[in-house]
Amino acid sequence: MVAALSGVFATAAHAQSSVTLYGLIDAGLTYTNNQNGSHNFKMTSGAVNGSRWGLRGSEDLGGGLKAIFTLENGFSIANGTLGQQGREFGRQAFVGLSSNQFGTVTLGRQYDSVVDYLGPLALTGTQYGGTQFAHPFDNDNLDNSFRINNSVKYQSANYAGFKFGALYGFSNQADGFANNRSYSVGASYNYGPLNIAAAYLQLNNNITAGAINNANGAVAGDNTFNAGLQRTFGAGLNYAFGPATVGFVFTQTKLEDAASINGATVGNTGNIAIGNYARFNNYELNAHYALTPALSLAGAYTYTDARLDGEKPSFHQFSLQTAYSLSKRTDVYLQGEYVHALDLGDSGIGAPINGVGMSSTPNQVSATVGIRHRF
């Protein structure tokens, strides 16, 4: 009798909660014509989507309320090392409550609102380009080069296609509430084939000798820029008709009390010094088309107009990808990028392709053939 009742209770508990193991592995071979002055042919991990594995779980609490969690690890398939500066669950780590009626509140290391709402409208935030399609230095974080630590996030339910959310990342410093904190807001609206979105992100930091002076705050180690203040905002839209989708995204990032571009997003060039003030305007036109249910074609053009310590560099970036699905979980892809930089002056930078490195000249070309497997 005890054994039978134990079996009944175990079955009931299992029906009310679940844990899912999931992941994605992206491996490729990349050729670059100029990486820090030399051509390079190398193996890459995450040329489109960062390799990861994770645990996702939920428990039904009744009345449309659930307890949820996600623990997601990033790694390099090329050498097996941890990503996100060696963090065990560097991509995501959060727990919270989700209501069908009122939305979701989560706490932990999470994506900001620019990634959540605007990222899906740019090719760099999707499976159609990902890492290497990011805007120069991923200056607007659409490719989620960094996440927000110590964060509380709210995401609304879907109200007839309208969703909104906000995030706050604490500094965790007793005598410096605003030192290395972050906040962001965003919203999106879907009406049939039309999608529109807008978002804002702000980072507040004290920096010393070109580094953030609070390693336990909202961002540390993997942030794109070392600056006292970063403001990023943007908006975009896309429209689907039949098998095709076209879109436009605009973002602007402004830096004050700036020191450097973090080498973690540029390649093996170390930090690159920039002036006290910097600004990046990004204009992206993109499209993707399903040639067949298994074969897709995607492309983007991005113009970036920048200001760096009195210099006025600009970047023209052309990106193209084709992918063929071998099954629902496995596909192979071929993609390439070309970046042409103008008016670099004495900025000390060249033509950058995210995840590849930076050229010693105003031009850079890269091509990758790879495979992705999801589980």
From TrEMBL:
<keyword id="KW-0406">Ion transport</keyword>
<dbReference type="InterPro" id="IPR023614">
    <property type="entry name" value="Porin_dom_sf"/>
</dbReference>
<dbReference type="InterPro" id="IPR033900">
    <property type="entry name" value="Gram_neg_porin_domain"/>
</dbReference>
<dbReference type="Pfam" id="PF13609">
    <property type="entry name" value="Porin_4"/>
</dbReference>
<keyword id="KW-0813">Transport</keyword>
<dbReference type="InterPro" id="IPR001702">
    <property type="entry name" value="Porin_Gram-ve"/>
</dbReference>
<comment type="subunit">
    <text>Homotrimer.</text>
</comment>
<keyword id="KW-0998">Cell outer membrane</keyword>
<dbReference type="GO" id="GO:0015288">
    <property type="term" value="F:porin activity"/>
</dbReference>
<dbReference type="InterPro" id="IPR050298">
    <property type="entry name" value="Gram-neg_bact_OMP"/>
</dbReference>
<keyword id="KW-1134">Transmembrane beta strand</keyword>
<dbReference type="GO" id="GO:0034220">
    <property type="term" value="P:monoatomic ion transmembrane transport"/>
</dbReference>
<dbReference type="InterPro" id="IPR002299">
    <property type="entry name" value="Porin_Neis"/>
</dbReference>
<keyword id="KW-0812">Transmembrane</keyword>
<feature type="domain" description="Porin">
    <location>
        <begin position="3"/>
        <end position="340"/>
    </location>
</feature>
<dbReference type="GO" id="GO:0046930">
    <property type="term" value="C:pore complex"/>
</dbReference>
<keyword id="KW-0472">Membrane</keyword>
<dbReference type="GO" id="GO:0009279">
    <property type="term" value="C:cell outer membrane"/>
</dbReference>
<keyword id="KW-0626">Porin</keyword>
<keyword id="KW-0732">Signal</keyword>
<protein>
    <submittedName>
        <fullName>Outer membrane protein (Porin)</fullName>
    </submittedName>
</protein>
